[in-house]
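fyi for ur records
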Amino acid sequence: MSADERARFLPFALPDIGEEEITEVVECLRSGWITTGPRAREFERRFAEFIGGGVQAISVNSATAGLHLALEALGVGAGDVVATTPYTFTATAEVARYLGADVLFVDIEADSLNIDAAELRAALEREPRVKAIVPVHIGGRACDMEAIRAIAVRHGIPVLEDAAHALPATHRGRMIGTLSEATVFSFYATKTLVTGEGGMLVSADPKLAERARIMRLHGISRDVFDRYTSRTPDWYYEVIAPGFKYNMPDIMAAIGIHQLRKVQQFRARRESIAQRYTAAFADLPVRTPLGAAPGDLHAWHLYVLRLDGERLRIGRDRFIEELGALGIGASVHFIPLHLQPYWRDRYALRPESYPRALAAYRGALSLPIYTRMTDADVARVIETVRTIVLRHAR
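which gave:
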């Protein structure tokens, strides 16, 4: 590795924006229609076709908005409980609180970091007020949706999948987005498809989709696009519920239209990076992430490396500092919610309340894995990780 390479900082993540996206945004700006309009509709149509399964797609300005809309459409409200994992970003859980519902955390599987179906089954036996289950596909590997769906059906509880990491991923050969009552994807700047901010709610339930579409824009009975593009005066609308301001502007959708065309190509590149990492770290005292189940696709939004505390003389925090000093960006996914002051205090939780989530967090760091990385970048990450690990091996 040259001195110039060592001096250059490799960030944790960068979006992959091409000339197609830039041209589409410029054309959008010149069109005079920059809020929700024809491009948002086109993006929704193409996204629904990509997911398949007869779903409808509702574009939103964030995945958080999509989760909120979906729970509201499922009828979650005050006095209800939503079951989810503590090993996620706070948005997954906070949307339940928006609706006055409470959250029931369920510990994770030690290997996949996804919600543990056996723990979920036991939790539902203890808590009859659960109105929705929200599994999270951590890093892009699908949860055990077959087991989760069986539990949900037995208890008569709908499932809302937090698929912020999982485009495109599959479970038992079926695309994530076709398995449950509703699924929400994220298009945040670091995700596998980016629009800057933004997300998509998909559902094959026409009533749920209709409710979410109405609540997305102030509870108004008609889309603004319909009202403002009619050749005849058609300004009348009705507010039928106290809705939200969650619509996706055409400027964002313009990016998404072209990102969607590349998403399988992006996934393949991320997978190739993950495979190189896993092979290179196989002999080290670290734990590499699970790949997809046989026959399925892993989205590889994250590559979460876990340090073996018994065989290393360095902790996770110091490890990230040494990576940074050598010009490699890293992050942590996630700080479990039961350690966060709000959730800890509201539910009187202790660090040991969810031991597998706690154990995973203490040794976990996320390495760069994105499509703009060159082969030389990947080799540099590998060399740097190996150098640090071997320097601190017991």
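The longest helix spans residues 250-280. thats all i got for now
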